[in-house]
Amino acid sequence: MVDHEGFNKNVIKSSNDLQTPLLLQSDNGIEHANETASVSASVSSSIKDLASAIQCTPITNDSSADLKDTLAGLAGNMIEWYDFSVFGYFADIIGDVMFPPQEGNAAIIESFIVFGSAFLMRPLGALLFGYIGDKYGAKRALEISLFMMAIPTFAMGCLPTYDQIGWGSVVLLSVMRLLQGISVGGQLTSSFVFTLEKRDQKEWGIYGSIVMISCAVGSLIGSILGYTLRSTLSDDQLETFGWRIPFLLGIFLCIPGYYLKYHSKETLASSSSEEDKVNPIEEAFKSPENRRSVLAVALVTTLHTGSFYLTFIWMPIFMEDLIDPPQKQAFLITTLVILLSLILFKPIPGMLSDKYGTRKKVMTPGAIGIAILGPLTIYVASTRNTAATFFVHLLLGMSLAFYAAPLPAWLLESFPDHRTRLTCVSVGYNLATSTIGGFSPLIATLMCDNIGLLSPGILYVIYAIISMFGLHCVAAKINSNTGDDRITSSQSNAQLSALL
Fold first, then answer.
1. Could you read off the pLDDT of 457-486 as tens digits, one per residue?
2. Could you give the 3-state DSSP secondary structure of residue 302?
3. Close Cβ partners of 417 (under 8 Å, ≥ 6 residues apart)
4. Which residues lie below 8 Å from residue 441, measured CB to CB, with a gap of 6+?
5. pLDDT at 490 over 60
6. Which residues pair with 420 in a beta bridge?
7. Which residues pair with 268 in a beta bridge?
8. Structural domains of the chain in order of their starting residue, each with its CATH number
9. Sign of the C-alpha dihedral, residues 435, 440, 443, 446?
10. Do 269 and 4 meet the contact criterion of CB atoms below 8 Å apart?
């Protein structure tokens, strides 16, 4: 590891030594001394700039340690998204045991309200963990968020039901979900920064897709558990103890959190100079260009978060509870689609975005596919044709993979200044998830009840239009003459200088 602080002191000391007045004996000594001093000052300034640049360079650790750190971060990401999404997979059962008895879909709707309420806390988590990450490092933000998710998730598995304490169960359930919301508000974006800043930017597409795959693995585990428990336990057993099992298993999230806390290093060297000790939140929104990029991130994330929660959280509930007779293989279909499209297939669009140097050209076809296949999937699912539903659902999942895989790289490339990058990405990303992602299942259920069974399909189209507007009209143009989205080092330095 490079000793940045020691190097900076040495080079600056050496440059200052060059400015020591020279004792020249000739008649032109004063003139030569002034010239020497001028040249020395220029050299000193250049060396100081070099030292400052080196301070902002990612630390190069042992490759084995880098791999372990990356795996620990991805494992934490996987378990955290398992913890967060499993609520949605058991929303119908939670609605029955944690709320008063009601007719129709009212209990499911109330359960999705609690599900969505956690997303309202995500912007708060984004500010909190963005500040921690930009001030103290992405590793610190990631490890704290993992512990903050593990504790309330385990506690949810121990909560008393409505029959035991009445409305107190609803209050306790809501509090636990709000704590989860704060945690996940900083976790995913911290994982983006923690993982990608360790890698060459030319590999950000593939490594960003791996981060997204870890989320999908977490959702896959939740879906498998949901399918297994529903297949092996009776309705009474599910309501008595079965729904608690997935939440109690969330305590395992402490394992990667422990590793990151005691065995991992930060991605960026912490600056010791006073000028770098900035308030990330204040700096993040000082620049009009930054504010525009935060808005673009929120718009572009809309399609990803909205379509993900509709397709993989709400859709199995739709197939099993909202259509009559139900699609009995709903969770099996969802499980297979997550495995094939969001895990096995997703690296391909990530690699394509690296190979061709553009994120937009990969994300745009994905958005078009989502807009077309989203409504079609809901229609085919309503016919209860298992094979056709699986096929169309798989195509929709692959379209979502095309859009989501390059997204982490695009997010980081929107903010070249690492001092405020995590704050900006977290705020923009979570503005979308708190307003669109978290409440999409609730909105879709309400639309089924009040408009029509197929009406939620229009949500896919609306989300796609919003995100394409953000991607092509609001987002800053980078390397527009070459079509390469990636920021070169010279561009990054120029933009950083402009921000400063």
1. 999 999 999 999 999 999 876 544 334 555
2. helix
3. 283, 495, 496, 499
4. 88, 91, 112, 115, 116, 309, 310, 313, 314, 317
5. no
6. none
7. 58
8. 4-52 (no CATH), 56-499 (1.20.1250.20)
9. negative
10. yes
pLDDT at 172 over 90: yes
Supply the DSSP symbol for 475.
S
Q: What is the pLDDT of residue 477?
A: 62
- CA 390, 409, 347 angle in degrees (round to 5)? 40
Query: Under 8 Å CB-to-CB from 356, ≥6 apart: which residues?
Result: 362
In the numeric block, which tokens belong to residue 429? 């990303």
Instruction: Please name the residues in contact with 372: beta carbons below 8 A apart, sequence gap of 6 or more.
Output: none
For residue 350, the Cα-to-chain-centroid distance in whole angstroms is 15
Is 220 in contact with 338 (CB distance < 8 Å)? yes
Token look-up 């527009």 returns 480
End-to-end CA distance of the chain: 28
SS3 312: helix
Q: Give CA–CA dist 365/371, Å, rounded.
A: 10
- pLDDT mean over 373-379: 97
Helix/strand/coil for 495: helix
For residues 81 and 214, the answer to whether their CB atoms sit within 8 Å is yes
What does the longest C-alpha to C-alpha distance in the chain come to?
A: 104
Tens-place pLDDT, residues 282-322: 777 787 888 899 999 999 999 999 999 999 989 998 998 89
Mind listing the pLDDT tens digit for each residue in 185-231? 777 777 788 788 878 889 999 999 998 998 888 888 888 888 899 88
Residue 419 has what pLDDT? Answer: 76
Cα–Cα distance for residue pair 469/452, rounded to 1 Å: 28
User: Quick one: tokens of 333?
Assistant: 């279909």
State the alpha helices, DSSP H only, in 310-385: 315-317, 330-337, 347-355, 360-382
Task: Take residue 96 and report the two structure tokens written for it.
Answer: 């029955």
**398, 311 in Cβ contact below 8 A?**
no
Token pair in block for residue 245: 């099992």
Specify burial of residue 406 (Cβ count, 10 A radius: 0-12, 13-18, 19+): buried
Helix, strand, coil content of the chain in percent (nearest 5): 80, 0, 20
Query: Which of 114-151 are b and which e, b meaning 16 or more Cβ less than 10 Å from the residue's Cβ?
Result: bbbbbbbbbbbbbbbbbbbbbbebbbbbbbbbbbbbbb
- CA angle 177-133-476, nearest 5°? 95
Measured distance CA(307)–CA(312) in Å, rounded: 8
pLDDT in tens, 235-244: 899 999 999 9
| Structure-block tokens of residue 410 | 């695009």
pLDDT digits (tens, 9 = 90+) for 398-409: 999 999 999 999
